[in-house]
Amino acid sequence: MNAIESLKYFIPELVLLGGAFVALTLDFFLKQKKLVGEFALLVIVVALCLAKAPEKPLPLFFGFFHLDALAHFFRYLALAAVGITILISLGYTPLKKRYEGEFYSLFLFMAFALILVAAANNLLMIFLAIEFISLLSYLLVGFLKNDPKSKEAAIKYLLFGSVCSGVMLYGMSLLYGAAGSIELSVIGDTLFFAPFKPLAITAALFFFVGLGFKISMAPFHMWAPDVYEGAPTPVTAFLTVAPKALGFAVLTRVLDSVFWNSQSVWSPVLVILSILTMTIGNITAVSQSNIKRFLAYSSIAQAGYILMGLAVFSILGRGAVLIYLLVYLLTNLGAFTVVLFVGGQTQSDSLDAYAGLSERSPTAAAMLTIFLLSLAGLPPLAGFIGKYYVFAAAIEGKFITLTIFAAINSVIAAYYYFRIIRLMYLTPATGPAFPAPSRSLTVALWALFLGVLALGIFPGFFITRILG
Amino acid sequence: MIVLPLSHILIFSLVLFAIGVYGALVRRNIIGILISIELMLNAANINLIAFSKYTSLSPETGQIFALFVIAIAATAAAVGLAIVLALYRVRKTVQADEVNLLKW
């Protein structure tokens, strides 16, 4: 499909892109920067309303933007993540300085970039879109002026990320050489017949380095705790969710269309990496004393569970990845919203600030409890549905070792989630009660809370829509 | 005209890539690390161009890919140096091992 014909299917993305530039311009004229944020929210809502599911896969822009069911699902996921992040940023005080308007418009660009990743169907687009996300993330992580931690996190993210994308690009160039094309489908077909197996496997490994960095898969997870701790809290909330989800989108697409015939080679690798990721994340999370760092390790562990679905790579496994990503998005954003609220009140992200939270702010404590229980995977919350599906996929595929390791890990995880809950309910409060959260935070909290409950209690409604 | 065999170019790009990785791992100066990363990107560029001449079904894709990579490398350097500058303003250092506030 050529560029002009494609435009009518590309309207939500055009709205986002146009909105981002308008937001940048508005930033010059408006004294009240909050209005820029509200404008950005409006743009996201409009884009959400305009996004229509394609009836059949559409190769827009000469096949460079592949709009299919997977891309459409991730379009919703990306817009939801960005929308909620902007909503909670409205109540984030360290941002209330000169650059608040730019912050919101960068997030609109981010939404655009995330959708590009989901729809990328050849090596060039994958590389460009991932770099687009990475560059924006580096800037957002280092956004707080005069905050040494934020700057340090940005520099670490930048160095680690650039090396990983360099390695990934080298892998891509080998893949291009082996197959003679940058289209994923053509590469898949060529590799099946050509005698390029060793080169293809090397290329695949290099490729996994870049994607593994994005989804914070062990052994490429080292950046995650530092970056998540140092970044501004809304950015941390966003980074633990959206780029990771889109990393999984690309990984699914690449495995699906390029390496589908060599599953026996990479499946054991992914099984081992999945076990490694969840174990490292869980064991290190136990001893953390900073809530952001704690949630960072927990999010590494969650990536390990999601990787289970990909390691199995059956139809059920791929569906499980999508369900888990949605569940994880709601739950993790919810947990970080509470962290943002408590951090705003106490100026501290240490776990001690959560002692006796149930007395200081009963709503926040109750919400955080629900989100943590959902992360631990307890019924009837959303997390249980996600876990149920990945475990079902692993058992169906006869990956018994993987299942056993995942079960042990869930127990460790339950231990440290309950530690926080105990801290909130069973230790005496150390300070006065908090005032009620601001309006935008309240809206975000309740929306995420209801989302987690709804997904847990009526999973059928969502699952039939996701799995088609 | 003498045509260089493909393997020569690939070995050259592999060496260049290895130098880049080595530099990124052992350099202390953050600017040095960024330059090493540029070397890695350029190694990939050489691969792309070489493959576009020797094995590609459509030679122009590899060359266009390389052009995009050059542009991305420039933007990454711009963003990277901006962050290094911001770091220097706050911490007065560009040595990677002195940036150590965030730990286990």
Helix fraction bin of chain A: over 70%
Mean pLDDT of chain B: 90
Low-confidence residue ranges of chain A = none
Largest sheet, strands/sense/barrel of chain A? 2 strands, antiparallel
Largest interface: A-B, 43 and 44 residues
Number of domains of chain B: 1
Question: Radius of gyration of chain B, rounded?
Answer: 17 Å
In round numbers, the mean pLDDT of chain A is 90
Which band does the percent of strand residues of chain B land in? Answer: under 5%
Please trace the helix and strand order of chain B, writing H or E for each element.
Answer: HHH
Helix percentage range of chain B: over 70%
The biggest beta sheet of chain B reads:
none
Return the CATH architecture of chain B: Orthogonal Bundle
Oligomer: heterodimer
Shape of chain B: elongated
Gyration radius from CA atoms of chain A, angstroms: 21 Å
Query: How many helices of chain B in DSSP terms?
Result: 3
Name the shape of chain A in a single word.
Answer: globular
Overall SS class of chain B: mainly alpha
Strand content of chain A: under 5%
Outline of this structure?
Chain A is an all-alpha fold and 468 residues long.
Describe the protein in words:
- The complex is a heterodimer of chains A (about 475) and B (about 100).
- Chain A has a domain at about 265-468.
- Chain A is built from 21 helices and two strands.
- Chain A has helices at about 5, 10-30, 35-50, 60-65, 70-90, 100-120, 125-140, 150-180, 185-195, 195-215, 225-230, 235-255, 265-285, 290-310, 315-345, 355-360, 360-375, 380-395, 400-425, 440-455, 460-465; strands at about 60, 65.
- In chain A, α6 runs antiparallel to α7 (about 125-140) and α12 packs parallel to α14.
- The longest helix of chain A has about 30 residues, at about 150-180.
- Chain B has one domain (about 5-90): Helix Hairpins.
- Chain B contains three helices and no strands.
- The longest helix of chain B has about 35 residues, at about 60-90.
- The chains are: A mainly alpha (about 475), B mainly alpha (about 100).
